Amino acid sequence: MKNKNFIIYFIVTLVFIFTIIIVNYIYQTKLNYIKVSQKILFQEASSLFNNVVTTRLWASKHGGIYVKAHEGIKPNPYLEDNHTYTKNNELLIKVNPAWMTRQLSELSNEVNKNYYFKITSLNPKNPNNKADLFEKKALEFLDKNRNEDFYTKLNDKAYDLLGVLRVDESCLSCHKTQNYKVGDTMGGLRVSIPTNVYSQNVELITSKTNILYVITFFTSIVFIFIISYTINSIYTRERNILRLNKTLERKVKNRTKELVEANKKLLKISTSDFLTNIPNRRYFFDMGSKSFNLAKRENQKLCVVCIDIDFFKKVNDTYGHQIGDEVLKYVSGSLENSIRKSDILARTGGEEFMIILNSTDSQGALNLSEKIREFFNKNNFITENLNIPVTISIGISQIKSNDESLDTIIARADKALYASKENGRNQVSVNL
């Protein structure tokens, strides 16, 4: 009898200990699921924040943008130097980064009522940007904790994220009267996203967890009488939990893949010219510097070709900017078809283009440039109603052993381009 009781007590003790372990494992799995779900909320909100900040940064790097005045937009009363006029006396309204962020936020709020964006500050120039209680608490926290970039709050209806907007050099021109310094907390951008899906998932995992608790305790009692059945039940519960984890991991992996693709698209947008769809100035100097350093290290030839469309302003004045844009597309497409894949072509200004010819000396660059110039000299830009002569002027320079940067080669090529224009245009000049 004693042995039997001892065995019963021993089995009950083991079952109790094992039950506690299983219950704790289920509880930790539930916590991990909720944490990952909250991380997904953070990733979605921070991604939306970063998209707006990237657009804001672009505007800030360019000192704001000007838009043609139209119904529904007036000069920003809180911005100095808030408008200008074109040569045709058309009113252009300046949109600085803060105002752009506000308009993007208001537009997003109108398009999708479930999402909410707001630019805010503790010391706003625009009273509409005054912080509410959550935003004030978030901005005070981020100002005290300079190593933190975000402040978040999760409630039943929404997940609120406020990302800090700190002062850099490009911000001071618009906020000089507010005594900001570089690095100060200027304000923040609030992003609120709905939590209905998150709440449903939490309710679902909580419901399943409660069921697992009941099953585990019931199984533990049965285990005292039927050991084999209990072991089998435990493994079944284990498989269900692992399957739930794999499902969660797959969702996280898919979301991460979507974020990577979104970042790739943003990078392409930031390095491409919006009109001609060829690389822009930023891309040219990033890749050009790498080509220059490689050529210097490997002692290889490299040439820079500067190209300018002759009398392009006359084309715009005569036929209008829409035709001028089509001429730019025509020139960029022809240039792209004339170079190798290893060369770098970019639109670096209004009607200015640059090419880096890798592993090419000045004679090779001259031959190619003459071929390109002759093509435009013989082939006009033709539409259904127009036949417009288009010629180009070209300047060339080759890398030297004492060149310290790509800029020195570009400067010489630019002088050669100037010489081509001074000597009558529609010609190629070389500055060695």
Automatic annotation (TrEMBL):
Domain GGDEF span(s) in chain numbering: 300-432
Pfam family, one: Tll0287-like
Nucleotidyltransferase listed as a keyword: yes
Entry's transmembrane regions: 6-27, 211-231
Molecular functions (GO terms): diguanylate cyclase activity
PROSITE patterns xref list: GGDEF
This protein's record includes keyword Transmembrane helix: yes
Top enzyme category: transferase
Top-rank taxon: Bacteria
Enzyme Commission no: 2.7.7.65
Keywords: Membrane, Nucleotidyltransferase, Transferase, Transmembrane, Transmembrane helix
Record field: catalytic activity: 2 GTP = 3',3'-c-di-GMP + 2 diphosphate
Protein name as annotated: diguanylate cyclase
Organism whose genome encodes this protein: Arcobacter roscoffensis
